Amino acid sequence: MAGFGQGTRRYPRSRGRKWSRTGPDRAQLGIIGAICAIAGFFVLGIILGPVAIACGWLSMGRTWTSSRSLPALTALVLGTIDTLLALIRLTGATSPGYGLF
Questions:
Q1: How far from chain centre, in Å, is Cα 42?
Q2: Is pLDDT of 25 > 60?
């Protein structure tokens, strides 16, 4: 028997949950995004740029109207620049006539 009046189904998630309910902290996501954006200028810009954009956007709360933190906005802007530069590099490397002269 589960005990009278002390059923285990009343609050199934109230005990035993140790992690955060809201996911990663927004400030932490902004810092991670800013680091990815800066590192993307040097290596793997086509991968780290979109990661920085996603981290910045999630850190801003997925809206433009909220109060923006500096690392989140930095990650978003630098990630966008990084992605555009990586795409320009890729399209420039595959254009016709590359390496002929």
A1: 19
A2: yes
